[in-house]
């Protein structure tokens, strides 16, 4: 047993364990936001296993998925090939370096921004801006402080299935949440293998995000709760911003 980086072992099981999160409705909500603009090419930052990248591809956009996890990118490429929703996938950390080409829009869905340390958020948003063409659109979400306070702090999450058991021991320390994840995954011989990894997410307020967007040269256009919910009672905040003024 040893601790490893986030999404080393969880990558292979991530979409399977999240099959109840409403991916289809979620993606259609995001696509409806993008359709308000004349966009063709997109960068999906923190694409993970590529569910949203594939959904945007099926909606007609030329997509590039980007993630810091090689294991996640491997899953994303295999799933895209299997589903015939091919796109480009690149390994990279948006907080460290912008991609080598330009896009019409960027997305960062399902807690990607929460994984960015607070001292790196300004550079991350500036690199997103640098990856966008004139009037580029940035659509992303975060888990809200309300979610961390009410549903994450001092809890244990569990999902026990026939072929995998997921346990997450969660705590909040100041402005960050620490989740110690244990997986028991069935091997081909029927036995189970245990692996452990630690996830750290950072708690951002709406004001912090808006301030960082403006500093990076974006104009915030809208902030609302998940799927358009009231943001004051939602576990997720969705931000829409445009490069420039």
Features:
alpha/beta; globular; 5-stranded mixed sheet; Rossmann fold; 7-stranded mixed sheet; 12 strands; 245 residues; 27% helix
Overview of the molecule:
- With 245 residues, the chain is α/β, with parallel strands linked by helices.
- The protein has one domain: Rossmann fold (3-Layer(aba) Sandwich), CATH 3.40.50.
- The chain is 27% helix and 36% strand.
- It has 7 helices and 12 strands.
- It has helices spanning 14-17, 23-34, 51-58, 70-83, 121-130, 145-152, 206-215, and strands at residues 3-4, 41-45, 62-67, 88-91, 103-108, 132-143, 155-160, 164-173, 176-186, 192-202, 218-225, 236-243.
- The strands form 2 sheets. It has a 7-stranded mixed sheet with strand order 4-3-2-5-6-12-11, with helices on both faces. The chain has a 5-stranded mixed sheet with strand order 1-10-9-8-7.
- α5 links the parallel β5 and β6.
- α2 (23-34) crosses α3.
- It is globular and about 55 Å long.
Major sheet characteristics: 7 strands, mixed
- Summed over residues and divided by their number, the pLDDT gives a mean of 94
Helix count? 7
Radius of gyration: 18 Å
Q: What is the strand content? A: 35-45%
Strand order across the biggest sheet? 4-3-2-5-6-12-11
């Amino acid at each position: 047993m040893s601790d490893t980086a986030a999404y080393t072992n969880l990558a292979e099981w991530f979409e399977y364990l999240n099959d109840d999160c409403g991916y289809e409705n979620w993606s259609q909500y995001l696509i409806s936001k993008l359709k308000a603009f004349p966009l063709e090419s997109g960068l999906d930052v923190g694409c993970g296993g590529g569910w949203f990248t594939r959904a945007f591809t099926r909606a007609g956009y030329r997509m590039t998925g980007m993630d810091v996890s090689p294991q996640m990118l491997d899953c994303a490429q295999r799933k895209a090939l299997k589903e015939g929703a091919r796109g480009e996938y690149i390994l990279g950390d948006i907080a460290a370096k912008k991609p080598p080409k330009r896009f019409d829009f960027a997305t960062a869905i399902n807690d990607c921004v929460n994984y960015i340390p607070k001292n790196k958020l300004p550079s991350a948003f500036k690199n997103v801006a640098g990856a966008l063409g004139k009037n580029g659109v940035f659509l992303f979400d975060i888990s809200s402080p309300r979610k961390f306070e009410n549903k994450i702090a001092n809890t244990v999450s569990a999902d026990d299935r026939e072929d995998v058991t997921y346990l997450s021991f969660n705590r909040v320390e100041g402005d960050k949440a620490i989740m110690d994840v244990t997986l028991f995954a069935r091997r081909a011989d029927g036995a189970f293998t245990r692996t452990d990894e630690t996830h750290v997410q950072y708690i951002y307020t709406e004001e912090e995000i808006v301030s960082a967007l403006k500093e990076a040269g974006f104009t915030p256009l809208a902030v609302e709760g998940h799927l358009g919910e009231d943001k004051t009672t939602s576990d997720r905040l969705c931000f829409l911003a445009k490069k420039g003024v």
